[in-house]
Amino acid sequence: MFETTRRTFLQVSAGTTAAAVAAPKLLHAMEQELGGKDVSPVTGTERQAIPITCHVCNIQDGAIAYVENGRIVKLEGNPEHVSTRGRLCAKGNSGMWYTYDPDRILYPLKRVGARGEGKWKRITWDEALTEIAARLDAAIKEDPNTISLKWGRNRTGGTLPRFMHTLGSATILNHTSVCESSKKIGMEPTWGPDIETPDFANAKYILNFGSNILEAAYFHNPLSQRIAEGVAENNCKLVTFDVRLSNSAGRSDEWIPVLPATDGAVALAMGHVILRDDLQDSDFINSWTNVTVEELKAHYKQFTPEWASKISGVPAETIERIAREFATTKPATLFTYRGPAKHLYGSYNEKACMMLPIMTGNVEKRGGYCLPRGMGWPQPQPEPPKPAKPSYLSTPPDYPLAGHKVSQLLPFWIAEGKQKINVHFTYQDNPVYTNPGADTVWGKLYRDEKLIPFYVSMSPFMGEETALADIILPDCPYLERWEPESMPNSLHPWLGIRQPVIKPLGESRENRILLRDIILKLDPDGKRGMKQYWNFKDGEDYMRQHFDNVPGLKEAGGLDFLKKHGVWPIYGRLDPRNGKIVDKTGREIQAEYGLHMKEVPAADMAGAVVDKSGNITKGGKVIGLRRNGRNVVGFPSHNRLINVRVDEWADYGFNPMPTFKQIPWHKEMKDDDLILTTYKINVHKQSRTAAVKWLAEIMHANPVWMNTETGRKLGVKTGDLVRIESSVGYMVTKAYVFEGIHPKVVAIPTAFGHWAYGRLAQLKQRQEKGGAWGATSDPDIDNNVWWDDKGVHPNAIIPVVADPIGGSQGWYDTLVKVTKAGPNDKYGDIKADWDKHVAAFKETLRYAYTGDLHRTMHPEMASWAGPDSVKHKAPGGH
Questions:
Q1: Mean pLDDT across the chain, nearest whole number?
Q2: Residue 387 CA to chain centroid, in angstroms?
Q3: Which of 26, 201, 496, 700 could form a disulfide with 567 if both were Cys (CB 3.0 to 4.6 A apart)?
Q4: Neighbouring-strand partners of residue 154
């Protein structure tokens, strides 16, 4: 043990000082400023700083990339960005390794063997574009809707829909049902937007249902900053309902374990207490919602704490106490994300939760539950018209409310012949890995050349889905492309950009360029009317058409301002003492509240009519409300009110009022049944980080969590192999046994267990060398990988379940049996069956569409649905 004395301290200090004098470049290179500048430790010269918007995940943090000798050497937060305020998470800091991935694809490839065989040949861009254009031309002549495009994260600012509309196709598919569609459908008809932006920093009470916001939830960097401020500076109480002790639950004042999919029951019971004890904000309810306090009280009477306790396992007295605390502590706010929504009836859960700030009047107030603040931008003109006819896959009649947000069901629909596909594109999408059923369902679809005759993947990386393509077009990672950006992750709206930090490597092309090049192959002279919609010189020219005429930004310099700063507006400077954005006087900038109370513009009032109910209408559309002698805009819903009663839901046989419906198979759980849930961790996203060397070293394995009591019953301890079996298959993995999870739940993180995504993700670096598709080798991956566990991916054994209202996959609904692994079970074994997935899907439809409204409806609720409530419009109904 080295013992420090005054004498040795002085000796060490003197040595350090001498070293600094001898090497002033090293001292100069040490960061002594808050951000925005960086110096080479070798030469002492300042590195080139280029502001960007991060896109490792979908949170869109403001960032700065530093370039030295043409190479990206460092990423950090942008101190001018009002949302993230100079901070960048671990994923963002490692983003350069997407660009320098040794297994990156740098030129077009064409399949030469069977799909999935892994045999490719290099082709030219002209060869690739010519073949794709020929396939598209034939598909357009047959039916444009036989051309489909599925994206994972589309941050192109409108480029992908422009491409599909140019082709005349409506078969545009996205990932939303895998993530949050039931949250969106729960919120949109209620108050307009599909997301909220709580004012955590100024709240006194935060109620969190099922969101791991401090680690992996939507907006976790900006919003976790605000939660930390609220707790540390405002003495805010944070209460989390979750099935496991997440990082957010572990840092809460209270963690309350709850059975999966029962958050809505708890929220309804809390509402019951608030209304029963007259703790609601009656003025707000009567003025700003489409129901009265009396109607709400009558409706909520049935949802007692005792009722919710039997379903959720949360003690009735806990529900009572938290309800009163939330209602009497002002201001208070609430946040949910995937915990309540990713279930068979997730939209009901979301609606029940968001009712709590509504009934207590904590809406659009400082410290409350606020509307999102985003900013838009114009599209380049002219724009292509929308397709002439709908596509089954994007507007499925079985899911009229969710529409195209039910993409997990596509393999079944295509296999059933409900939509023919001739040409299929994917962009930033890997359903073969990320979706329920994984390779068993999506891999089967993509391998079938009768169902998908021609498949083009636009991707910089091989991936499980790209490995099944016919042609791969090498897209650019985010540090090499242009994109517009705005996200409602702050109470201060902003516009931002991604801009190329370096030129695209190899022969890769950014997405809007390669899509334009496809269109120009189809319509080189403009005679087909397609070329006119792609009239731009390059990515920067496209961005100028977005930004150079935005009011306010135009006067500041348009795109040139964004190229310099990365974001607009600049609200102030970052104070290094407290990490907040302050004005010239040093005071923290303040957000604007009460957006619903803004005056209707005088120009809009010309010709408008105010009826007896206070509705301001113009051209048959409600544009505002008359409140307290003022003409105000209200909420961005169809009637400018918060719609507690959603009549559109009743039109399709769903309960229009806040309600709860238990997962049918959860009601029938046996003693040895457990519920399998998945989750994300802070250093990974779902499918695109296991090959990032810094992140893979931090976490590369994913044991399944189980409660100590559960482990004792099964005879399982930490490190033991266990077999997890669902109705569609089984997997074998390792156990992690401790107290931090509900006894009836087992949980496993995703982002592990890849089988076709780079050597590092597969741990094949010892058998294979990098650079197969044009990239170069990496000495770290070749020599410094010390771990030998890549984890196990659970999605193959998760049945496909779609919320009939919101479309979300029921990620947290799966019943499993867990046993100690048998003598023939090996770590990493996974087996699932397509036919069993189909059977599970059909069983889900039976549950989803049989008597939803009137079977679950309390007699007092019947009047909400009207006389046609039993005329269920979904197939299989009444």
A1: 91
A2: 27
A3: 496
A4: none
